[in-house]
Amino acid sequence: MIVETDGYIELIQYLTGQLPLFSDQSAQVKTADYTLRDLMEEKLSMSMMAVFEQNELSQEQRLDIVRETDAIVYDLEEALSKVLDTHPTPEQESFIDEFVGLVKNLFDEHLREYRV
């Protein structure tokens, strides 16, 4: 669906370019009482629920989206493995919000093309 598209590859490159945001945890102010892993999973789950609610999807399409989301979580976990159990900074939360929004845009675009 989307993980093999040019848009997703560019999104992963964008994530890679932002890794310095996640590298020096000691110099950053931590305010969250949840982990980066929790934040990512929660934001992606909410975003995919929005995709489900905004589109009439077959059971097969829903399962495809769940599989794709699992692949995205895997990619994020690979890229951020060293910091997943740390508490995110406001800047990291902002980036995760933006990243998840871009992922949702990819799904929305794919579903829009699928309907046409």
What report would you give on this structure?
InterPro entries: Uncharacterised_A0KLC6. Pfam families: DUF3802 (PF12290). It comes from Idiomarina zobellii. The structure is a single chain. With 116 residues, the chain is mostly helical. It has one domain (6-10, 33-115). Helix content is 71%, strand content 0%. The protein contains 5 helices and no strands. It has helices spanning 6-17, 20-23, 36-54, 59-79, 90-115. Helix 1 (6-17) packs antiparallel against helix 5 (90-115). The longest helix is centred in the last third of the chain and has 26 residues, at 90-115. The relative contact order is 0.23.
Order of helices and strands: HHHHH
Gyration radius from CA atoms, angstroms: 15 Å
Percent of residues in beta strands: under 5%
* Class per helix and strand makeup: mainly alpha
Mean pLDDT: 91
End-to-end CA span:
16 Å
Global morphology: globular
Tally of separate helices: 5
Give me the count of strands.
0
The number of distinct structural domains comes to 1
**How is the biggest beta sheet arranged?**
none
Helix content: over 70%
* Unreliable residue stretches: none
Quick summary:
It holds the Pfam family DUF3802. The protein is mainly α and 116 residues long. It is 71% helix and 0% strand.
Short descriptors:
single chain; 116 residues; mainly alpha; 71% helix
Topology:
Blueprint: H1 6-17, H2 20-23, H3 36-54, H4 59-79, H5 90-115
Helix pairs in contact: 1-5, 3-4, 3-5
